[in-house]
Design goal:
Blueprint (H helix, E strand, L loop, with lengths): L1 H7 L2 H28 L6 H27 L9 H23 L7 H10 L16 H31 L5 H25 L5 H21 L2 H15 L2 H10 L6 H10 L3 H15 L7 H20 L1 H9 L5 H10 L4 E2 L7 E3 L2 E3 L3
Antiparallel strand pairs: 1-3, 2-3
Helix pairs in contact: 1-2, 1-4, 2-3, 2-11, 3-7, 3-10, 6-7, 6-9, 6-10, 6-11, 6-12, 6-13, 7-9, 8-9, 8-10, 8-13
Length: about 350
């Protein structure tokens, strides 16, 4: 669709093409996020999703630079040929990727599979109870938190350049764009850093810590000028890094057969990215971009209430998932059965121990 839009130089065509691409990406993210979070041991769900989205963050940092310096460098008012071939190459690559996934032996996870996994986790105090979807209050709180967080994130990214030029007058557009690229790189680094932190800390603690730092640094960005303000706003992007995936996973914990639908609700909450920027823009026009950062501050405070609630009232259940051996002991037992061994309750002389289970030597 981008090809004919480029040939005809149609703005409406580009808008329609972007809408189509956005619809496809939202469908993909609904499926992929839920799949990554549930396909594997529940113990590592937050870690898996954070790590997978770390590579998406690299793309977010690198893509604008490639677009500006390579793909769209020679675009002018009379020729969009570079745009045409760029989008055609992307379309061909995505088509080949779709073919690979179509033939790849990826297992399908059904609603009953998800319900069975939750039932197995009851032994680890996860507090799972099969409830109707409308009684999944943690999910709806997570949706609200995600809506406000994504809205704040997109608003900051959209007005980052305006903020830089506001707090340090005389900064050129290109310099401000380079500073945005640095901030987006910090976002990618933060994704990997939070994934590493989850190997040693509870995910709920990591989420609470990162969101607390978000609130602190956005407040600092509202009051500090010059490079200090730019640095604090860049650190906001660093601490944004783990928020989306780490809200996503606990929000779908315990949904069982409702997991796929719940995941679609959370993905739909990215619509906050369309609601917050216009409001920030109105405040920026009325006052300035620095004061307008009070809008994402409000969104972050609302989102911060979610990890606060999780740590105060849902700690036992979430820790039950993080202590769960579902998907881990079964894998070990399968390996043991394949070589003709079986688990025993007590460690015999010369036994071999994996985790908390001891196996006899053959």
């Amino acid at each position: 669709m981008f090809w004919p839009s480029s040939v005809k130089r149609s703005f409406n065509g580009f808008v329609g093409s972007m809408f189509t691409v956005g619809s496809a990406l939202s469908t993909l993210e609904t499926s992929a996020n839920a799949y990554i979070a549930t396909c594997g041991p529940p113990k590592f769900s937050e870690l898996r999703l954070n790590l997978s989205q770390s590579f998406q963050a690299i793309g977010s940092a690198v893509a604008p630079l490639l677009a500006a310096q390579v793909f769209f460098k020679n675009v002018n008012d009379t020729s969009l040929a570079t745009v045409q071939y760029t989008y055609l190459a992307v379309a061909c690559f995505v088509f080949l990727l779709a073919v690979v996934f179509f033939f790849a032996p990826i297992p399908e996870i059904t609603d009953s599979d998800m319900a069975d996994a939750e039932e197995q986790g009851r032994d680890f105090d996860t507090g799972y109870v099969d409830k109707p979807l409308y009684k999944q209050y943690v999910l709806f709180w997570g949706v609200a938190a995600q809506f406000c967080y994504v809205g704040s994130q997109v608003a900051i990214a959209n007005f980052f350049i305006n903020y830089v030029q506001q707090v340090r007058p005389g900064t050129s557009q290109s310099t401000a764009s380079n500073l945005l690229a640095v901030a987006q790189s910090l976002f990618a680094i933060g994704r990997f850093a939070s994934s590493l932190a989850m190997r040693f800390l509870r995910p709920r603690h990591v989420l609470w810590l990162f969101m607390t730092m978000l609130v602190i640094f956005i407040c600092c960005a509202m009051g500090i000028s010059g490079y200090g303000g730019i640095a604090t706003l860049s650190l906001v992007l660093f601490f944004e890094s783990c928020t989306y995936p780490t809200i996503f996973t606990p929000a779908i914990r315990g949904l069982g057969r409702h997991t796929k639908r719940g995941a679609s609700f959370i993905v739909s909450s990215v619509s906050g990215g369309a609601a917050f920027p216009p409001v920030l823009g109105v405040v920026a026009d009325a006052r300035n971009a620095q004061i307008a950062m009070c809008i994402p501050l409000i969104g972050f405070v609302v989102s911060w209430s979610f990890p606060l609630y999780l740590n105060l009232f849902k700690a036992k259940e979430l820790d039950g998932y993080n202590n769960s051996k579902v998907g881990i002991e079964q894998s070990v037992n399968s390996c043991v059965e394949d070589v003709g061994e079986s688990p025993v309750d007590e460690k015999p002389s010369g036994g071999v121990t994996f985790g908390q289970t001891t196996y006899k030597e053959a």
